[in-house]
């Protein structure tokens, strides 16, 4: 049975964005730490490899295998846990992230590091499914887009601030200190979130009157999401090589990536402004600008100024992507918010892993020049899906 808040929400009288803001900020913080946990090894792979005398290619599995694990297990784990109370489950997942980072921090062997990352991957596979469903239940459905944008900013903050800051800490004090710090922050945030996050139900929301074909709409939403992430990471995985090939100094790569990441905040603002009013316009605009900006990267290469300007526009547009597809998937009402989130989570990570693999293949065969064209083509395919799936991306009542 739905909780009182859920019943009110279905009647159109649920909590406003302001009323739900403390809980949404709690989910924002949790997402920030989850993304930082996932991607921190990118910045410390050489140090980990040196510490345990393993090749960097082997150490790289700490990132790629993590994404594959999430892609494969997000849906099954969400199904297995669908009857569990939401708040205790979310808090348990946050605490398990802390355990994962603690294992890596104290690992005496590389095998223990791998074990810690396996724990993190299993946790991540379920975490965002629960978090997406949770945020959708905290507010009345008319505020869902803005709620998703608030929670989605935790993902952007992890990319923009979390990973660079923890990488800098690792450079100064060692990679073990960085993971230990994440573990402590994870435990502290679990306690804090437990106090501000209200409980929600875990029922499947009723389908809107007069709607049908929810599963088909969900399939369209997550297919477009997977294609978008596939195109994004075909190029973004190797963006450092693009910048270096354009003449950027190696010492400038970090600040440049930070600046490009900050541009994503504009996308979050745009998502918050459009997703509750005209989600189809928002999705089309975001993917069209993303595709054109990636094309501009290819046209501008190897001019550093042209590449940086195009990449800034690209980064700004992509900043809206997680919020767009999370919101649209939940609004299909074909299943619970958690299952919709699971499919978004799975296809996002499949795109990340697939994009990295495709980009590496293209890099070996044709060099950096080929990456933007492949990335833009795949992203344009996502745009085609959005254009044809008109009902999927339309505004629900």
From TrEMBL:
Coiled-coil residues: none
GO molecular function: transmembrane transporter activity
Protein name from the UniProt record: Major facilitator superfamily (MFS) profile domain-containing protein
InterPro entries to which the protein is assigned, alphabetical: MFS, MFS_dom, MFS_Efflux_Transporters, MFS_trans_sf, Tet-R_TetA/multi-R_MdtG-like
Pfam family for this entry, one: MFS_1
Stored Gene3D superfamilies: MFS general substrate transporter like domains
Membrane topology type: Multi-pass membrane protein
Superkingdom, natural source: Bacteria
Keywords tagged on the record: Cell membrane, Membrane, Transmembrane, Transmembrane helix
Entry's Gene Ontology cellular component terms: plasma membrane
Domain Major facilitator superfamily (MFS) profile positions: 23-394
Transmembrane segment boundaries: 21-45, 57-77, 89-108, 114-135, 147-167, 173-197, 218-246, 252-271, 283-301, 307-330, 342-361, 373-389
Subcellular localization, as worded in the UniProt entry: Cell membrane
UniProt KW Cell membrane keyword: yes
């Amino acid at each position: 049975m739905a909780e009182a808040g859920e019943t009110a929400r279905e009647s159109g009288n649920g909590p406003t964005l302001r009323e739900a803001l403390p809980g949404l900020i709690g989910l924002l913080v949790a997402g920030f730490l989850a993304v930082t946990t996932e991607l921190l090894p990118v910045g410390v792979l050489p140090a980990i490899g040196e510490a345990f005398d393993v090749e960097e290619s082997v150490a790289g599995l700490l990132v790629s295998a993590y994404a594959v694990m999430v892609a494969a297990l997000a849906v099954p784990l969400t199904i297995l846990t669908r009857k569990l109370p939401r708040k205790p489950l979310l808090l348990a997942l946050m605490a398990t992230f802390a355990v994962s980072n603690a294992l890596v921090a104290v690992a005496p062997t590389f095998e223990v590091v791998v074990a810690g990352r396996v724990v993190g991957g299993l946790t991540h596979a379920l975490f965002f499914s629960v978090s997406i469903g949770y945020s959708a239940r905290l507010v009345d459905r008319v505020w869902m887009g803005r709620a998703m944008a608030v929670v989605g900013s935790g993902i952007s903050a992890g990319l923009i601030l979390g990973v660079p800051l923890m990488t800098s800490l690792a450079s100064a004090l060692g990679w073990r200190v960085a993971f230990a710090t994440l573990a402590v922050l994870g435990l502290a945030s679990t306690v804090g979130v437990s106090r501000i996050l209200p409980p929600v139900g875990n029922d499947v929301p009723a389908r809107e009157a007069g709607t049908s074909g929810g599963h088909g709409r969900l399939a369209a939403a997550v297919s477009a999401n997977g294609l978008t992430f596939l195109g994004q990471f075909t190029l973004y995985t190797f963006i450092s090589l693009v910048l270096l090939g354009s003449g950027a100094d190696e010492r400038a790569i970090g600040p440049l990536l930070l600046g490009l990441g900050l541009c994503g905040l504009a996308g979050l603002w745009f998502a918050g402004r459009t997703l509750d009013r005209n989600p189809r316009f928002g999705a089309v605009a975001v993917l069209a600008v993303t595709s054109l900006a990636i094309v501009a990267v290819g046209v501008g290469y190897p001019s550093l100024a042209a590449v940086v300007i195009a990449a800034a526009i690209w980064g700004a547009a992509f900043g809206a992507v997680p919020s767009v597809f999370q919101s649209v998937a939940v609004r299909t009402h074909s299943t619970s918010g958690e299952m919709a989130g699971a499919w978004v989570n799975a296809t996002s990570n499949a795109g990340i892993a697939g994009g990295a693999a495709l980009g590496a293949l293209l890099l070996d065969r044709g060099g950096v020049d080929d990456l933007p064209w492949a990335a833009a083509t795949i992203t344009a395919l996502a745009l085609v899906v959005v254009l044809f799936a008109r009902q999927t991306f339309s505004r629900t009542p």
